[in-house]
Design a protein that fits this description.
about 70 residues; alpha+beta; 4-stranded antiparallel β-sheet
Length: about 70
């Protein structure tokens, strides 16, 4: 996908996002992969995680491995 196509995806913000301003947006790709970007810099870089990496990432968050 081109960067223009990525920016036109249906992006969503997590319902767990508070008012801290530290938010990310996620969009699903046709391949099952996920695109992730910083809400504060929507024209910045976009991280693409394949389906396996996305599942691992979510599991690690749920285990508390990604805490501040």
């Amino acid at each position: 996908m081109t960067s223009t196509e990525l920016r036109q995806l249906s992006w969503r913000v997590s319902s767990y996002t508070g008012n801290s301003g530290n938010c990310v947006e996620v969009a699903g790709l046709p391949t099952g992969a996920r695109a992730v970007r910083d809400t504060k810099d929507r024209d910045g870089g976009i991280l693409i995680l394949d389906a396996s990496a996305w599942t691992t990432f979510l599991a690690r968050i749920q285990q508390g491995a990604m805490t501040e």
